[in-house]
Amino acid sequence: MSHTTTIGRPPRGHRGHGSRGLPGSVSTVGGVRPDPEPSPLAFRSHELPYAVTDAKLEIEDPSPHPEQAMQVRQTRAFVVDALDQVPMKRRAVLVMHDIDQVSMRDVASVLGIPVFTAYSRLRKARMEFRAAAEALRKEGGLP
Predict the structure, then answer these.
(1) Which residue from 15, 27, 64, 90 puts its CA 20 to 30 A from 84's CA?
(2) Spelled out in words, what is the top-level CATH class assigned to the domain 66-138?
């Protein structure tokens, strides 16, 4: 009868035959019995949950830069001024569809008009908005 002797730990799931050749016994090396096989989680206990680096941690301020905030306010004022020049019936369709992203069927239903009338008002409102924006731009407004 032959037996195998391993140095160190036996492979995972291996049941050595030991020095006496019995199934399930573990071989000894120099009379010292090796540690029992650790659980898979034991190897992870020394690992860090994040990488350690020497890089500086920079936290960005989530608020917009003052120049960007000013540009956003100016753009918003420009759009509102251009929208004010579009008649209310057409402006309602334009704002609901293009800004609030309401479907044309729902726009027509809310306003109590036929769907094709809503499409017609939207087309005219877009043309009037474009003309108003170009006129404001020529006067020295924003974009």
Answers:
(1) 64
(2) mainly alpha
Q: How far apart are CA 66 and CA 119, in angstroms?
A: 39
**Between 52 and 77, residue with greater pLDDT:** 77
Question: What are the boundaries of each domain within the chain?
Answer: 1-31, 66-138
pLDDT tens sequence across 14-63: 555 554 545 555 555 555 555 566 555 555 555 555 555 666 667 776 77
